[in-house]
Every structure is written in structure tokens, then in C-alpha cells.
Amino acid sequence: MTEIEIGRNKRAHRSWAFDDVAVVPSRRTRDPKDVSTTWNIDAYSFDLPVLAAPMDSVVSPDTAIAIGKLGGLGVLDLEGLWTRYEDPSKALGEIAKLAPEAATARMQQLYSEPIKAELIRDRLAQIRSAGVTVAGALSPQRTAEFHEAVVKAGVDLFVIRGTTVSAEHVSQTAESLNLKEFIYELDVPVIVGGAATYTAALHLMRTGAAGVLVGFGGGAASTTRKVLGIHAPMATAVADVAGARRDYMDESGGRYVHVIADGGLGTSGDIVKAIACGADAVMLGSVLARATEAPGQGWHWGQEAFHPELPRGSRVKVGTSGTLEQILLGPSSSAEGTTNLIGALKRAMATTGYSDLKEFQRVDVVVAPYNS
């Protein structure tokens, strides 16, 4: 990896964001109708390589069901309003109407309501009753407390998602979650992250995780870079973690861990480049928050926005682009890359001559900054 000197006492790695890279066509093209976007993880198969991010502005039980029926996977935030209130519609409506200067403080108050294990059970049961794959997410801090309720509710895929998730968390004041022991003891596949480096991802893969989230999530709603000074240009991060996946396959005798890009995915072109850099699937937040069915009602926020001690996110206005079906499958009446995401992915794969996602990971990519 190229290093540059930023001063006499510090060197830094050169990294690239999705805006800095582009996919290059090859000598062969295909009909987009002949392209497959099917994605499989563990025993579960999906027509679309899309997970809806576990954020209250994106996923409700109803939208999780709708996304599942469209061929993707909706991941419910099990620390959100849906597991704190029997009827969260009033709180969601209030958040949508808050003045900007009052939003963070009021959201902290609304999210101070305790999480209820029986609501975790009921929300996941609602999704299961619709016949779609059931996925729920907890932060590492809440996993030890609520994972039994999640597993008993019959979750199919368990997501442990945080700004940065480490396989070697150290604390002198609290018992740490031992990911390797925890995942080994569970009967369901676990997706864990975020991670943004080769080494961090390799350690997470060694815990037995079925998938690793790349990035810090939050996307448009995150202020992690401003508050903590932490940031990971996503093209480099995805490529580095894909490299860890390759080396872990050799180390483990062929065990494949899925790489899921989580953050920096604002358009269909970003999804194309994430898979080109080595991702198997993508986790989407702000793009799906623009759906008419989205519970955020045109607003978008993540868990970082209501942290009780150090908020690292904000509630942002994203507006509405169309229905979930239009955003994922089209048709599109916009050239902004925010609707018909899968149609654009299929078109890119067809234009470069690849027939499925695994093949498309081998496509040529060049460094080509967007303003060049």
C-alpha cells in the first residue's frame, strides 16, 4: 500500500473513496436480462444483494417484510423505537417534525425509554409470519443482554453492528463480549461490523462470523469523522477487507466470509463500485430512507444521532424518491442514481461482460476522481 509523508513525523496510507474510482468496460458485453444478482449467505438466498440498514428511519417490521418480498433483506434495529414502544408511530411523527436545533436533545429523550424483550419477540414474530427471512441487529454493548430474546424469537440472521466492532475489545470496568465464544455458541449465522482495515476484518472472520460489515454505517446521517476524526474511504476499505477474505479462505481451508459494504453508498454507481472492489452485498440506509413507505417520513438518522453521552450523527432531510419497489427495481424517472438501483447494477455488469456478482468482483477498476 502506498504511503505518503504528511509531515516530518507522520506518514499516511493513500486511500480511495468510491467517487475516486470507476469501473472499466471489457471486450465483451451482455444482455442485462441475462445477468444474475442473486446472493447467498449461509442457508439463505436473496434475489438482490441488498440489506436494509438497521435504522429506525429505514426499517420497520412492515418495510422489512416489503424488502424481503422484493428479494432483499430488511434488518430491524432491535434497540430502536420498535422495541421501546408498543406503538412508535407517535414518536416517529414527532421526530419528523422537530426543529433542527431541538432534534438531538429530544431524540435522546425518546430513546431513553427502556428496550423490552417482549417487543423484540413480537416484532421479529411479525416479520416471520410474513414468510420472509428474519434479521435483527444489536450493538455490541446490548448483545449480551438481549441476544437470548433474539434467538428465542426465531431470528434467521443476527447482526452485531456498531461504529467500530473489534474482536479484541478491552475494558477495565465491564465484562467484554467475547465474539469468538459468542458466535460459536449461537445456532444462527452472525454478521458483524464495522471494520475498515485488513487486520480488523481478518480478526472478525476468525471469530466465525458469516459476514463482515465494511465501514462505519451512518452514511449521510453520520458525523463520526467530525466528532471522532475517524473515517474510512470505502473503495480502499472494501478492497482491503476482500483481501482479508481471500487470505482467510487459505488459512481456514476454504471457509468463505461475506463482505458487506456499509456506508458511503448514496447512488447506484456506488453500489456498482462496492461490488467491483470485492463486496458480496451492500447495506443501504439513506437511499432506502427516501422510500414513501420508510418510517422516517423523509428524514434519516441512525443510532449515533441519539447517543446519550456523545452524539455522532444527525437527523438529515433526505426527501422522497419513490416506493421501495421503484428504488430497488424501477422503473426510474430520474437520472440521479437513486432509483432502480438493481437495474443499474445489472446494466453495469452487462456492459462490462459479467453474468453474476462473483464474476463482477474481477472487473477492472481505475482511479478516476469524479471531478477529473
In short:
This protein is an alpha/beta fold. Helices cover 35% and strands 16% of the residues. The strands form five sheets. It has an eight-stranded parallel β-barrel, surrounded by five helices. A two-stranded antiparallel ribbon has the order 1-2.
Q: How is the topology of this model organized?
A:
Layout: E1 3-7, E2 10-13, E3 21-23, E4 39-41, E5 44-46, E6 50-52, H1 61-70, E7 73-77, H2 89-97, H3 100-110, H4 117-129, E8 135-138, H5 140-152, E9 157-161, H6 179-185, E10 190-195, H7 198-205, E11 211-214, H8 224-228, H9 234-252, E12 258-262, H10 268-276, E13 281-284, H11 286-289, E14 299-300, E15 316-317, H12 324-329, H13 341-351, H14 357-360, E16 365-367
Parallel strand pairs: 6-7, 6-13, 7-8, 8-9, 9-10, 10-11, 11-12, 12-13
Antiparallel strand pairs: 1-2, 3-16, 4-5, 14-15
